[in-house]
Amino acid sequence: MTRLATQDLIINVPGRSAGTALNLTIEPGQVWGVLGTNGAGKTTLLHTLAGLNAPRSGQVCLGNKPLSQLRRRQVAQQLGLVFQERLDGFPATVLETALIGRHPYLSLWQMEGADDYARAEAALEALDVAHLRHRLVSTLSGGERQRVAMATVLTQAPNIWLADEPTNHLDLHHQSAVMALMAEQAAQGSAVMMCLHDLNLAARWCDHILLLYPSGEACWGPRDTMLVPSALERLYRQRLATVEVDGAPVFVPIQAPLTDHE
Amino acid sequence: MVARLWQPLGLLALIAVAAMLFSLAVGSAQLSAAQLWAVVQGQGDALARTMVIELRLPRALSAFAVGGLLAVAGALMQVLLRNPLADPYVLGLSGGASIGALAAMLAGVGGVLISGSAFLGALFSTFLVFGLAHGSGGWTPSRLLLTGVVVAAGWGAVITLMLALSPAERLPGMLYWLMGDLSYARTPWPPLLLLIATCVLLIPLGRSLNVLARGPQQAAALGVDVRPLEWGIYIAASLLTAAAVTTAGSIGFVGLVVPHMLRLLLGNDQRLILPACALAGGTLLVLADTLARTMIAPEQLPVGVITALLGVPTFLFLLYRSR
């Protein structure tokens, strides 16, 4: 089990002068939600945590080693990233797509073996896309492709999950199923961080929240201290009504002018 | 798993051997299967042996090597640029090589100097395109592609200018070089060894290329060191193309169409596609060259014309019935 930590991390968002230095520790078993407006830097943050973007300053540590000192292959054996956008490239079937999740574990001359196939099949099953295994990914709907992308990372079996809007394009049932899968991964000892636009999914499934403001400011902490209406209204510049369902807050945007902040 | 790779490759290898034998038997003097078998065993009459071993075999091997190099280079470029229209010539390589070769011909030198000059032209064009595409930021596939296309267009204009200014008696040789002509090939071994070495080196990289085909970020997230791999592909594809162009002039079409045909038939696993390209590209050019030197014998046709005439309908047919 590995934890992901940042030391004085400032992400590199073009045109932004500074921001809050992030000192985060994402422990195994935790589920973090990243909330912020469009362009606040949520995707940049996830890509920086995965080592795909260089930070403006500070560093990211995987376990007790700085990410910059690890080989990409070592990183990929521990950390998986679900992208928000995907290139189509050349046509590939659903099963082939899930199988590339095994890439970090196979040596140069090795072919995928029965075990790798079994993992890919199990992941497709878990994401409810096993019946599509021989279809070309380019022929699938947006939601099905999203689930195939999740299945690829599940095949990769990382113990740190970074998911960029994992519920994009998904119907309600599959949104819930994907969030349950993330919770299950955390319960088995993974650390999970995902960017979300749905406050109510964050309220129900995340135990820690990071709020990212367009200015680069950020604040983070346990869910109950972060998901308070005043902070969220300031974040989104949107009035919210709050009701409680099943012991969790539900936020509903309402048409009313903001009064308490500018 | 392994059978999935070896079955199609074995079949392609058999077809390649058959094409080679066909090319050895056919020509101004036809050999029967029995005569060819005798030559292969080291017997038969001396004239037939000289013809097969000293004339037809080196030329057929050269054709095979050049076709294989072009097809593998095309497959690599398509993965690198993630663009199905990429081929070894789209980045201006053949233009640079052509200028080198034509300049040597204009200067009146022959033989090795034409090849050497073509090779230098190809390398110059490679570095020019790469340097310009790099620009002040990093290079991206679309920027590399655009730079290459524009540089290639520039070379095209220079080639036309050189043809317009050259004396009439040199024109046929120049035009044949531009359409591809295997009678320029001297020894088949350098391109053939390069082709074999490339295939051996590429097989372990095939899975990384599969991941790279899904985009550099996805590849990096799955543990691929993207930058060195992309550089390596670019340099390898350039070298393969330069070697092919230097051996046989600029033969179009093989690098674009052979990888696509194979993708339509065999799927997109680069571990299968790259060696399959070497075999199928080689086979296509062996057949095309055999036709080029026999159809209106004793005259020869430019082999590039034949590759296009054979490949265009086959490719369109496969594309038409693909899902």
TrEMBL record, chain A:
Signal peptide limits: none
InterPro entries: AAA+_ATPase, ABC_transporter-like_ATP-bd, ABC_transporter-like_CS, P-loop_NTPase
Domain ABC transporter: 4-239
PROSITE patterns: ABC_TRANSPORTER_1, ABC_TRANSPORTER_2
SUPFAM superfamilies for the chain: P-loop containing nucleoside triphosphate hydrolases
Name of the protein in question: ABC transporter ATP-binding protein
Provenance organism: Vreelandella lutescens
Membrane-traversing stretches: none
Automatic annotation (TrEMBL), chain B:
SUPFAM superfamilies: ABC transporter involved in vitamin B12 uptake, BtuC (SSF81345)
Keywords: Cell membrane, Membrane, Transmembrane, Transmembrane helix, Transport
CDD domains reported in the protein's UniProt record: TM_ABC_iron-siderophores_like
Membrane topology term: Multi-pass membrane protein
Subcellular location: Cell membrane
Taxonomy, superkingdom: Bacteria
Membrane-spanning residues: 57-77, 113-132, 144-168, 188-210, 231-258, 270-288, 300-320
UniProt xrefs under Gene3D superfamilies: ABC transporter involved in vitamin B12 uptake, BtuC
Primary site of residence: membrane
Xref: PANTHER family: ABC TRANSPORTER PERMEASE PROTEIN MJ0876-RELATED, FERRIC ENTEROBACTIN TRANSPORT SYSTEM PERMEASE PROTEIN
UniProt family annotation: Belongs to the binding-protein-dependent transport system permease family. FecCD subfamily.
Identification of the protein by name: Iron ABC transporter
